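#structure-requests
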Amino acid sequence: MERGDPKVNGWYFCIGLLQPAGHLHLNFWLNEGAFAVTFNFMVESEMTQLNTVFQALGDATRRRMLRELSEGEKTVGELAAPFEMSLAAASKHIKVLERAGLIRREVRWRSRVCHLNPGPLASAQQWLKQYERFWTGRLDVLERLLREEDAAKTPDREGND
């Protein structure tokens, strides 16, 4: 590393911007030791988006708001109405849903109208679908074991009558 390279808190670093799309390569040097890190922003971005969606879906109030929006657009007041909460509290829930990309808000005159954006839900479903085969297989095995157990018990019951 040359003397003219940037030094921050004792670390020398350079950023390689000429990487494949979505990748960033960072080189760090501390004294004589060096190491390199490559980030894949496309994967990190996807996972961050997915984490945000699942975090938003983790609250029953927000899930109910999404269910309400699946029937059509609603104002913030209409979304807040079924809950015993202030408009400010409802607005905080709506901001979480908006940050996750699950809804979009628009201003109409003096009202704020919310719309469902199902795209991130499809991404979450696609991620969950990866595990469907695993759980279906496990449940099939459980069903088979329970049927075998029931079949083994049936002759005993008939013989004891």
